[in-house]
Design brief:
Blueprint (H helix, E strand, L loop, with lengths): L2 H24 L20 H9 L3 H11 L4 E6 L2 E6 L1 H10 L5 E3 L3 H6 L8 H11 L1 H4 L1 H4 L3 H15 L5 E3 H18 L4 H17 L11 H28 L9 H7 L10 H32 L1 H16 L9 H5 L2 H13 L5 E6 L3 E3 L2 E3 L4 E5 L1 H4 L39 H18 E5 L6 E3 L3 E3 L4 E6 L1
Parallel strand pairs: 2-8
Antiparallel strand pairs: 1-2, 3-5, 4-12, 5-8, 6-7, 9-12, 10-11
Main location: membrane
GO cellular component, one term: membrane
Membrane topology: Single-pass membrane protein
Amino acid sequence: MDPILLFYATFFPLLSLAFLIFYKKSNYASNPNLPPGRMGLPYIGESIEYLLTGRRGHPEKFLKDRMAKYSSQVFKTSIFGEPMAVVCGAVGNKFLFSNENKLVTSWWPDSVNKIFPSSTQTSSKEESIKMRKMLPNFLKPEALQRYIGMMDMIAQRHFEASWEGKQEITVFPLAKRYTFWVACKVFLSIEDPVHVSKFADPFNALAAGIIAVPIDLPGTPFRRAINAAETIRKELMAIIKQRKMDLAENKATPNQDILSHMLLATDEKGQYLNELNIADRILGLLIGGHDTASATVTFIVKYLAELPNIYNEVYKEQMEIARSKKEGEMLNWEDIQKMKYSWNVACEVMRLAPPLQGAFREAITDFTFAGFSIPKGWKLHWNVNSTHKNPECFPEPEKFEPARFEGSGPAPYTFVPFGGGPRMCPGKEYARLEILVFMHNVIKRFNWEKLIPDEMIIVDPLPMPAKGLPVRLLPH
């Protein structure tokens, strides 16, 4: 039995008692102008249904059912023990993205704060603000250009070690290996595969449990995530101590990676960041820097296997670039700029299989949206599927059509795999580079066919093929 369901079945009487506290806290009973919807079971709300629709392969169902029943603009629910308004459509996206730090601010479930102990000193929200101030210098296109050749080298080594000479492979775990290798190099200057592999298994456990119902019992995804975070943090602390020594002895440079920058940066009071704080920041970056990209490149392989006409167009574009390179010459910024069709394909993949389902906000004042009241303290959720799978935003939404991204592309606030507004993902350009480098290297080496034609896609919490996408390789 699913440990989450077992927990709720065992402790339901206690949860019913907790409902009295929740009922007072939520203030939804005393406000007659709240959005339409239902709050679900006491304290649990609709969390189980929200999570299970993803695990059953239909993450958009939770949203679509309620948009059809209550409102296409906003409905109320309760997820992760919080009263919540789910805003929908391009209008809802624009409203939230445009009112960051005016009406709403970022919010994460308690599970995130419990996994990152430094957030007990400052909230995860404050940490996020500090990180956003620190990252632009490293993640803007001009700074990332110097990493393209390195990404290409890692991709080549990855395919030589894990793909070439094999008749069949499973794509998803190998995609995670590639993106994690790139993240370790860019953020920590670690490229030794043995050293990188020390992180891999605990990191997968962490990623699987970070956005989970926070049940801290043996065997639950949340407990496994806490244990994994502690394991990774110990390894990071050893790396940090060594880097401090290397910087002091001029064996490392201040600008070689994000870790060096963090060790030398000071806050508003001129104080250096402590080691635990740095470890947690690097941990957060490694999560954001590889997990979503690995899901995207996996689905690129899936769709190219299913759509030979799309594969052929990508192949033509990438081989033209490959033929222009000298023996041993790495990819560069000019090559990336030529991959226009390939990026349109990647964008259409992210529309149909978005690497993240959405994000959360918290109301910092009372306000109204679409004629309904949103009380201060309520949480808000925007979800990519309210536009990505909406025929009003994308005609024939289930059809794979890269041409949607030609010219000026989709209408504003409809295509939002990286969010939007002040909180748009700062790693968008980084993700674009590692995705395109992967596409170039895989398609110039192989064609492939799926071994499970109707393999189900699940979301837990990221989208992934249920069996990891096994394929048969057909080398060129």
